[in-house]
Amino acid sequence: xxxxxxxxxxxxxxxxxxxxxxxxxxxxxxxxxxxxxxxxxxxxxxxxxxxxxxxxxxxxxxxxxxxxxxxxxxxxxxxxxxxxxxxxxxxxxxxxxxxxxxxxxxxxxxxxxxxxxxxxxxxxxxxxxxxxxxxxxxxxxxxxxxxxxxxxxxxxxxxxxxxxxxxxxxxxxxxxxxxxxxxxxxxxxxxxxxxxxxxxxxxxxxxxxxxxxxxxxxxxxxxxxxxxxxxxxxxxxxxxxxxxxxxxxxxxxxxxxxxxxxxxxxxxxxxxxxxxxxxxxxxxxxxxxxxxxxx
Length: 295
Prior knowledge:
The protein is α+β, with helices and mostly antiparallel strands.
């Protein structure tokens, strides 16, 4: 097990992961932001270097003080050969299987390995599998093979009419975390609210404020670079606000050079249509999250 330290080594890792897109997307996005100041204080572990097979991104040990907080106890995994990564992932210094945790990856092929480890570590695991989309602006820079030659970036002018005059474009502050948490599919509890607060403090956020000055629609991103936790309060839905807001978000983050991607639940046809409308690229691999609970 090799912890990777130093800017030069992490940049080498980022460059290597870029060659394996889109299957390395979840880890690539995380390492990208580690190379932009590492605001979540994450660390990268590999089984060997420089010719690694498996890389795991995880918080530093001192950050993982709450055994029940799987929002903090989150690992991103990429393996060139998933059949050969079980021993590495089973090491206690790589993944702390005594905690409630979640593992995220763009590789469905890790499923058997993680289920095997869950059984060995005497716990239960639940897998969530969603569609994975790469924002077209990111695909143009990082994965041109995914692009359809007929695809053209959406024209921002056609979204301007969606932005109603009574709404004001703004950003979230940490006091808005409770509202985001209320509508987040993976949230709704105290630990998820703390995670959302941290994301709001750390990364660019976008929202539309209603007449009362409170957010009616919002879009965030997390430590892996994924566009997440977007939502609209019920009385403002079906007005195209999220479409407008995500368009604004993408344009702003693209100027910062951020790689952008997102996941959509297989049953969420509205967000699937939105991604199609924004001409985001549906990639062949999936978004996967495994939630592990020790028994």
